[in-house]
Amino acid sequence: MVEEEKLQIHGVAVEENEPKKGFCDCIWTPIYWFKMLATEMHWSFVSGVAVVNGISQGLGGALARISTDYYMKDVQKVQPSEAQIYSGITSIPWMVKPIWGLLTDVLPIVGYRRRPYIIFAGFLGVISMLSLSLHKKLHIIFALLLLTAENAGEAIADVTVDACVAQNSHTHPTLAADMQSLCALTESLGAFVGFFIGGIFVRLIGPKGVFGLLTIPAGLVVLVGIMLNEPHMPNFAYGQVNQKFLDAGKAMWTTLKCPEVWRPCLYMYLSLAVSVDIHEGLFYWYTDSKAGPSFSQEAVGYIFSIGSVGSLLGAILYQYALKDHPFRDLLFWTQLLFGLSGMLDLMLVLRLNLKFGIPDYFFVVIDEGVSQMIGRLKWMPLLVLSTKLCPSGIEGTFFALLMSIDNVGIVSSSWGGGFLLHILKVSRTQFHNLWLAILIRNILRVTPLGLLFLIPRSDPNSSILPPTEILSTKEGIETPETKNIELVSLVNNMDCR
After folding, report:
1. Which of 245, 312, 257 is nearest to 101 (CA)?
2. pLDDT (tens digit per residue) in 459-479
3. Helix (H, G, I), strand (E, B) or coil at 109
4. Does the pLDDT at position 173 exceed 80?
5. What letter does residue 18 receive in the DSSP assignment?
6. Where do the domains of the chain lie?
């Protein structure tokens, strides 16, 4: 009876086609699930989420990360500290997600709110990746511009599809969790496949060849925009656009001034910014034939793919065991473990693993899996906390703002790591002080424990915003056109993208 009621709620009569219990469940259940989502909403929406989250962000993002690392190292031949700075520069489009969100929400193009932006994002990705792959001797400045343009296309497509997800969550509230699961599942699976094959493709066709392959996911994004089922609004009042921007800005500023909001926001930024990122230094050492273990391109891809599995396991562990724990308690333990997990990198660089008889590859696989799992456990409560800080009426826009604050923290971490590598003179061939950079990073990772007083003691199931603040942010913005500003998925992008 319970199962029958669930099927009636979803409006899909599948009693006769219900898969049988057993091994075949693993195959047929996802198929029936996808079919149910496509029937309830529209096949173009489900395929759009799969393409943008799974193929473009998941698979394409993984391929782009590996190819960019090798492109900076082998083609542009920059130092690790420079590569770390450049990584932050190319991530700037993710720092301004509220701008993309507001544009798609309040400024339709030729009568459509979503389709033109998705098509534009796809073409931006195609042009930038094609230019990057075909140019033989591209100056670093132009290379950075093209990589930034590719990230802008990906960010615009991400925000636009997330807006569709949030919009459908209002019209189909019983399927809201299913849509979030669809986003997270497709992205995780795409990232796993992308990392798994990324190293192989880099070895076979080089990083520039992989950039050429990335035009395929971008082209599929264009196809999503063309096929997306969206109502046409021929008589949109463009004269009200400026007022809508002003109303949303006033509402967000009013909310940010609330102590219950700015204190957690400050913690989220500082906890990310002070945990300096020295990924490029470690990557150069991984692939060095003298000082490091000299991992091949395939080995690097396999290592990152195991990291994706660890991240997925972290999300599952949080969902089933930790999601009801108070924010402050959970963040204390995850931040502490985050700092301790960095000691695995220190053991590897000091070659202590070899003294214990543990091969480099096996040790790095364990290191990457554990680090990504703890990183996901640290990130999930911050995501949930962010949703609690969003005022009624502009939930999606304000959530995009919070994610942008976190992205600024990530970029600050990347630039701080580049500065640290430069100060310690860690270069393409010199890694004598890399161990010291790792030790300093690990110490900085635990410093946010002293900032936990900024986080409320409340549990994830209680409200954080006071009622008076919620009411004050709704003034002047609750119009038929702006009442449902919903832009960003609540579970997307572990690196705050």
Report:
1. 245
2. 666 666 665 444 344 444 443
3. strand
4. no
5. P
6. 31-474
